Structure formats: structure tokens, C-alpha cells
Amino acid sequence: MAFRDEYEQGGKDPSGPVADRQPAQAPEAEPVAAPAGQAAPAQAPAPAKAKSRRKPIVAVLLLGALAFGGYEGFHWWTEGRFMVSTDDAYVQADITILSAKVSGYVASVAVTNNQSVKAGDLIARIDDGDYRFALQSARDKLATQQSAIERIGRQIEAGRAAVAQAEAQLASARAGFERAESDYGRQQQLARSDYTSRAALENAKAARDQAAAGVKAAEAALAAARANVDVLGAQQNEARRVAAELQTDVQKAERDLSFTEIRAPADGVIGNKAVEVGTFVQPGARLAALVPLTSVHVDANFKETQLAHLKPGQKVRIEVDAFPDADIEGTVESVSPASGAVFSLLPPENATGNFTKIVQRVPVRVAVSPEIAQQGLLRPGLSVVVDVDTRTGDEPQQTASVKP
């Protein structure tokens, strides 16, 4: 309404009061007056200058992109197309599980977790009192049996003496028989000439028959003596076999006693220790794990579509996530005879139900260079990235011809 009143007033400049009602604005920069004889400059050149400044930046970016693409293309052509890679790879080792062979209470534990040990070092000791008694009992039984063998040996000697005696008695009986036979012959001749009595003839005959019986008795005694020696020899052989069994029992008792000391079978590091002093362990009870860090390797699970160019002997570059700056080299050692799914607890059965094809993975064993393995830095279970250079290695042997 105030504006209408002011407009109705004639001769008054409405700009004055209206200008007073406008909100305050920042004063605009007054254009610089052009020199005399020159036209005022146009306002369009400002965006042109901005565009002219962006052109070098775009050109530099394009050149950088072309250079990067060229470098990557050259790298792929000269090296990348020959590399077969996978990140499904892990450090592995032939871990030994240390177990008890005999039962008993653990008397002492000589190691702790993460402790390095050498082959033959003591890990733990089981109370060996019962096993020492068993060993002593076995040795005593063996000694008793050896005494029995010696006794039978003496009996054999006595039996051989009896054989000699029986042989002598047989010779004596035969001599007596010959004499009695001669006497009987003479008595018969005298009896024909009636120079002797009938009683003398009968006595001579009886003496001859008695001597003949004595010869047979001596022969039987000799046979019995010889048989007795044979029996004693058989008993001695039996006793020796029993002694051999007892010797085996002694050796078993010695082994059981030695098993009370659990020692490291190889060099490595103790881990996952599960035994303490006073624990009662049974045969097969797990005591600890021995990890041989100096003989680690890598199990890389390649896709089945990557196996065409893989073969033992190829060079491998290994990148360990735990040691990104480490330069580790290896060699393809072997390829698994089957995919990992075949060796799983529940192998897939694709002959029933609906089927969805899934790319399988096949484990490939990669040997780590001995220099790196001896350092003991690689630990089983670490994740790695494996790059196999298919240009290296021997030529693969043709096992079957493939027709296109």
C-alpha cells in the first residue's frame, strides 16, 4: 500500500523509496571503462580461458591412460598370458601327531607350546614303575627257562652214559651167550658118548637159554637208553623254543618300557600341547603336534580349467599375505590324482536329482625353495597367492592323442 501511495504522487521518482525497500545486496563491480577509441571488452572470453586450461589436463590424463594400457598390454603379452594364478592356496606341512603307546600317568612334560625341538628330544615321560616290574618278571622267567635247558642238557649227558653202559652190558651178554652155547655143545657131544649125565646137559641148555635172554634184555636196555636220550633232546628243543618266546616277552617288556618316554621323531616346533603332569593317558591319546617348519610346502587349489598348462617342474612365484615384501620361489612338485571333492567326507553324487555344473578344483603341490623353508618363516595355514610360469619346466609327455 505504501508503494501505491507513492506511485499516485505525481512527479516523485519511485526509484528512491522503492530502492530503499529492496534488500541489501553486495555492490556489483563497476565495469572498467575502456580507453578512448576502444570498444568495451566482451564477457565471453572467461569460459574460453577455463576450457583452454582443461585441455592440457585432459591430454595428460589420456596420455597416462594410453601409457598405462600400453604397459599392461605389453606385460600381458610378454609375461601375463603365460602365468596361471590362484589365491586359493595355503602353506601346509607334514604335521606329526605325538601319541602315547602305553597307558599310565604322565610323570613329567619336558616341552611347552611353540618350543623348537630336535629329533630324539624328550617330550614327555610316563610313570614306568609297572613296566620295570614287568621287564624284571620277564627276565626272571627267561632265566628259569635257561636253567631248565641246562638241566636237560645234563640229563642228556647222563642218558648218553646210560647208552654206553647198555652197550657194554649187551656185549657182556653176548659173550656169556657164546660161552653158554659152547658149553651146551660140549655137553651134547659128551652125552652122545655117555660121558656126562643128563642133568649136566640140561643145566648147560638152561644156561644157554638164560644167556640168550640176557642178550635180548641188554639189547632192549640199549634201545631204551637211546630213546631216553632222544626224548631228552626233544625236551631240550622244546625248552629252547619256550626260552625264545620268553626272550620275545623280554624284548616286548623293554619296548613297553622305552615307550614310557615320548621323544620327537624329527626336527620341528611343538604346538597344540594337550598333556600335563598327572594326566592319565591311554594308548593312542594325543599329546601334542610336531610341525616341521623346515619342510613346508604349498597346496594350491587350481580350477580344472587351469590344469591344461600345469606340469611338474614349472617355476612358481609365491606371494604370502603375512610377508608381502618377501620374494619366494617354488616349483610345481605334483598334481593330485583327483579333485578335492572326491576325497571329501561326503563326495558329491551327480547321478541323482537335478544337476548344476560347478567348476572343480584340483590340489597342486608346490615345493618351496630350501633356503626359504630353512628360515622357518612359513607357517602351515597361511594364505598365499601362487603364480605358475607355464613357460618353464620340461615338455609334457604325450599319454593320449586328442583328435579335434
What does it look like?
With 404 residues, this protein is α+β, with helices and mostly antiparallel strands. It has 3 domains: 82-94 and 290-346 and 357-389, Elongation Factor Tu (Ef-tu), domain 3; 97-128 and 260-288, RNA polymerase II/Efflux pump adaptor protein, barrel-sandwich hybrid domain (OB fold (Dihydrolipoamide Acetyltransferase, E2P), Beta Barrel), CATH 2.40.50; 129-258, Helix Hairpins (Orthogonal Bundle), CATH 1.10.287. It is 44% helix and 21% strand. The chain contains 6 helices and 14 strands. The protein has helices at 2-8, 15-21, 45-78, 129-192, 198-258, 370-375; strands at residues 83-92, 96-99, 104-109, 116-117, 122-126, 261-263, 268-271, 280-281, 286-291, 297-303, 315-320, 323-335, 361-368, 383-389. The strands form 3 sheets. The chain has a 6-stranded antiparallel barrel with strand order 1-10-13-12-11-14. α4 runs antiparallel to α5 (198-258). It is elongated and about 180 Å long. The model is unreliable at 1-42 and 396-404 (pLDDT under 50).
- The structural domain count equals 3
Give the overall form: elongated
Please identify, by name, the CATH architecture of the largest domain. Answer: Orthogonal Bundle
Q: Low-confidence spans: pLDDT under 50, at least 5 residues?
A: 1-42, 396-404
- Biggest sheet statistics: 6 strands, antiparallel, barrel
Strand tally, please?
14
Would you state the CATH class of the largest domain? Mainly Alpha
Beta content? 15-25%
